[in-house]
Design brief:
The protein is α+β, with helices and mostly antiparallel strands and 358 residues long. It has a single domain, classed as Jelly Rolls. The chain is built from 9 helices and 16 strands. The strands form 3 sheets. Strands 1, 2, 3, 4, 5, 6, 8, 11, 13 and 14 form a 10-stranded mixed sheet that branches. It has a 4-stranded antiparallel sheet with strand order 7-12-9-10, with no helix packed on it. It has a two-stranded antiparallel ribbon with strand order 15-16. Helix 3 crosses helix 6 and helix 4 packs across helix 6. It is globular and about 50 Å long. The protein starts with a helix and ends in an 8-residue tail after the last helix.
Length: 358
């Protein structure tokens, strides 16, 4: 693994193209490359105000759908404001992420080391071990629906997923707040594409998700010299990801139109939304699964601060079929089961035996 990860510091994405389930013909370095990378300082990723959807009636919903659809078709990313999630909830969650990683021992965390359950690798990922490709400078912890005491989860035991009490209730509030945004977002996307806006309502009711806690510790001189990035360049595998913005910068978005990277660091309290591989597949490449990565912060004083993020990836359940939406022709992709599609792509991170062929 070490050799593969050392290679990953210098690798380009096309070395792993055989795993992809949608068209990704562009080439980029997995880690920021000072000599090769260029940055787009002019492109502005659109901000979409969800108050149009929630308060603007029929006209407001139509306007929000247009704005969101244009943003996602153009770059695969949008910034959401007016979403109704209290900023204090994000601040509370950020503190609990720090507490989870800083007050438990590695041995306590390793009890919950990640394993595949359904499509998703769920559990704890030690630092530099989130993938077999690259030594990411991040610890991660992925919790799916079964990790939360939600009404539809049966025989729930908190200790099966959480090392100490007190964490699950806080993160459950975030998950439930984000769940309230799933149908408004999906209905708006479908409206933009000329489809029945409620086509996915049933599929996304109490749906599958991956709620990830990312703890990027302060960067040591050794890690800074290693050339490793905080998170390698990748595309999300999901329908879309809901990512609350936070103060420590480093998120970079790849603009396929010009081959340059966009530094994205919107105000805390807003939400960064991006589309993934599921979405590119069902929209017949209309809405791209856009490349992004996390690099070291530009300001030296931020190197000594932990970076904390809580992205929530929205999937469909494993038994669902991913097929191109009605009216999007000519159809480029055959129907495929969600579990085959998902695990086939993510086996590049976890090894070929991770894939499920059914």
């Amino acid at each position: 693994m070490a050799s593969n990860q050392e290679d990953g510091i210098r690798a380009v994405n096309q070395a792993f193209n055989k795993y992809e389930g949608v068209n990704k013909g562009h080439e980029y370095y997995l880690v920021e490359n000072d000599e090769k990378d260029q940055f787009d300082e002019e492109f502005v990723i659109r901000t979409c105000d969800m108050r149009e959807y929630f308060e603007g009636g029929e006209a407001g919903r139509a306007a929000f759908a247009r704005n969101l659809g244009h943003a996602l078709e153009e770059i695969g990313f949008a910034v959401l404001t007016g979403h109704g999630v209290p900023p204090d909830l994000y601040l509370e969650a950020e503190k609990k992420v720090a507490e989870l990683f800083e007050t438990t021992t590695l041995e306590e965390r390793l009890v919950y080391e990640a394993k595949r359950h359904g499509s998703v690798n769920q559990g704890y990922f030690p630092i530099k071990q989130t993938t077999i490709i690259h030594p990411d400078l991040v610890e991660g912890w992925v919790f799916c629906r079964r990790a939360f005491n939600l009404p539809d989860v049966e025989d729930y035991r908190e200790s099966d997923f959480w090392p100490k009490p007190g964490f699950e209730p806080v993160f459950r509030k975030v998950v439930q707040a984000h769940e309230a945004l799933i149908l408004p977002i999906m209905q708006s996307i479908l409206t933009y594409l000329g489809c029945d806006p409620r086509l996915y309502d049933q599929k996304l009711a109490a749906t599958n998700f991956g709620f990830r806690l990312n703890y990027y510790p302060p960067i040591s001189d050794e890690d800074r010299a290693s050339g490793a990035g905080r998170m390698l360049g990748h595309e999300d595998v999901d329908l879309f990801t809901i990512l609350p913005a936070q103060k420590v910068d480093g998120l970079q978005v790849y603009n396929r139109a010009n081959g340059k990277w966009i530094r994205l660091n919107p105000a805390p309290g807003s939400i960064i939304l991006n589309t993934g591989d599921y979405m590119q597949r069902i929209t017949n490449d209309r809405l791209p699964s856009t490349t992004h990565r996390v690099s070291k912060p530009r300001e030296g004083r931020m190197l000594g601060e932990a970076r904390i993020t809580i992205p929530m990836a929205v999937y469909v359940w494993e038994e669902e079929t991913l097929e191109v939406l009605p009216g999007l022709t000519p159809v480029k992709y055959e129907p495929v089961s969600a579990i085959k599609f998902h695990t086939g792509i993510t086996s590049k991170y976890y090894g070929d035996d991770y894939a499920v062929d059914k």
